[in-house]
């Protein structure tokens, strides 16, 4: 049998396997099986190796067994586990050979998500169903067959995200996801900001976000999605106003709760901050 720990970050839940506590290998089929909601159930499955307490390697898998290279909420949950089991207050978590600095202070856990990379529209031909335009980082697509027009910024913050922010986008999630999946070959996590204009008019406004995670579907919370949404709002505000956001922290509200994203300048890096919880443990049978 293999010991597992169940962890939670604002409704985004995780199964964690510590290689110090098992001698058996976990296959992709095992991950898919135990991630099912009629079994243990999780949004993401973590396998960690804490042999080097300063640099802990993490393998991250989605419900469908596909590998992920980032999960901000999961990294915060891992930090909670490491604090409870190894008394660590900070460490570096290594995912896909990228290091993320993580710290815990009381009930707040922060992870440095690093700097974003902005993504272009793939260079391939599209039929007459789509009209595509780009201004600065913002891409606008008019889908003739769906009779919708929407705008988004595509970026990578470890995981690939399209952050859709145009008015009314939340009412057309299914159609928008279908278009983005077709253009980006289903590689994107897709976030929908419901109140972008309200935030741009008043940067104290909580950003209201829903995320469709690749390999997991709509989840109650997505840490990298929250970070991507904050990056998007920072960038659009700065482009529209030709000035920096006065408040360096943006609050992102999702179904599972609110996370904060703090921006540091020169270079631009982003910290994801919020609580996580311990839901229990058991054995994979």
Determine the mean pLDDT. Answer: 93
What proportion strand? 35-45%
> What CATH architecture label of the largest domain applies?
Roll
Number of strands: 20
Largest sheet: 20 strands, mixed
Helix content: 10-25%
Distance between the termini: 6 Å
Identify the CATH homologous superfamily of the largest domain.
Answer: Diaminopimelate Epimerase, Chain A, domain 1
Q: Order of SSEs, N→C?
A: EEHEEEHEEEEEEEEHEHEEHEEEE
**CATH top-level class of the largest domain:** Alpha Beta
Question: How large, in whole angstroms, is the Cα Rg?
Answer: 19 Å
Unreliable runs: none
Indicate the overall shape. Answer: globular
Key descriptive features of the protein:
285 residues; alpha+beta; Diaminopimelate Epimerase, Chain A, domain 1; 20 strands
